[in-house]
Amino acid sequence: MSDGGADAGVSFDGGPGTLWVHLWSDVVVGIDTRDGHEVKRFTGVGASQGGDGILALGAGKLWFQGDNGIRSLDLATGAGSDLPGASGGKYPAYGAGAVWWAEEGTLADPGPIYRYDTASQTTTHTNTGGLPNGTGGLIAAGPDGCWSLYSRMLGQEKGVAHVRADGTSSANVVLMGETGLGASVATGGGRGYALTHFVATGAKRLFAIDASTDSVVTQRDITTPEFGANDLLANEDHLLFAEGTVWFVDVYGEKFYELDPATLATRRSVPTGGQSTKQSAIGAGGAWSGYTRELRRTDLATGAVVTLPMPENVRAMVFQAP
């Protein structure tokens, strides 16, 4: 076990689990969330430096965007490989026993959503388009399938595409607001969650969508004094679903907001300790974020922030429960 530049003297006092962190030099490190020790290191994993630094976890592998599309890293052996047929893939997500991704299209022709079943090793796709031109990592997957933001020039239609877990059917849910920069999706607990923004006013709106009916069940404006952040159009703002609830990560406001998954009412907020990347994580009693040469853990019980120095800039992360 090596510390790889992490300060082994810093104690997070966290719970068990591993936080997988992707660094800018194409290195992935596994951090023990109990004490901050580095327990694994993989170098030269083949991630695309032009991508948005999104990690997905499933089937014993990390999934990310490589130079040749979707790529995996086996966490047991360290072997990396490109996923066949995914050369144009971006922003992978894992859920329902499958890796999901979309090929970035245009406003006139959004690319389809793809599903790779890790058990049968087969790939299918739907005609439902996702990832409008110019967007970020706007895919989420879970037991109810895959959700992806989309935009279509025809009719100025914008919203969320939902593909069922087995990939056999899909639906589009039209939403108010733009689904490009500053938008995000998450899923869990039988719902999809979508964050959209209004370019003219800078306002942002959060929607909760029933996964069985594909209908909006509640929504709220988050451009309110309660959130109080500037730069609400920040492309790095994002949603998470973890530990049974939904979180809004306000990057420039430097806070995690825990929201009630049924009503979207704010339960509490905790600091991020600074600006963060497009991907954060919740687990082991902490909210995890990183930006420059540091990894930060916010204690969800006390709000205390502990910083772990890293050898280089943090790009993305994902939590693995024991």
The count of helical stretches stands at: 0
Could you give the order of the helices and strands? Answer: EEEEEEEEEEEEEEEEEEEEEEEEEEEE
Proportion of residues in extended strands: over 45%
Question: Overall pLDDT, averaged?
Answer: 86
The counted number of beta strands is 28
| Straight-line N-to-C gap | 18 Å
For the biggest sheet, the summary is:
4 strands, antiparallel
The helicity comes to under 10%
Radius of gyration: 18 Å
Low-confidence stretches: 1-9, 133-137
The secondary-structure class comes to mainly beta
| Bulk shape | globular
Q: How are the strands of the biggest sheet laid out side by side?
A: 3-2-1-28
How is this structure best described in words?
This protein is mainly beta. The chain is 0% helix and 51% strand. It contains no helices and 28 strands. Strands 3-2-1-28 form a 4-stranded antiparallel beta sheet, with no helix packed on it.
Task: Produce a short descriptive summary.
The protein is built from no helices and 28 strands.
Topology, pairings included?
Layout: E1 18-23, E2 27-32, E3 38-43, E4 56-58, E5 61-66, E6 69-74, E7 80-82, E8 89-95, E9 98-103, E10 111-117, E11 122-130, E12 139-142, E13 145-152, E14 157-163, E15 170-174, E16 184-188, E17 191-197, E18 204-210, E19 215-221, E20 238-242, E21 245-250, E22 255-259, E23 266-271, E24 281-283, E25 286-290, E26 294-299, E27 305-309, E28 314-320
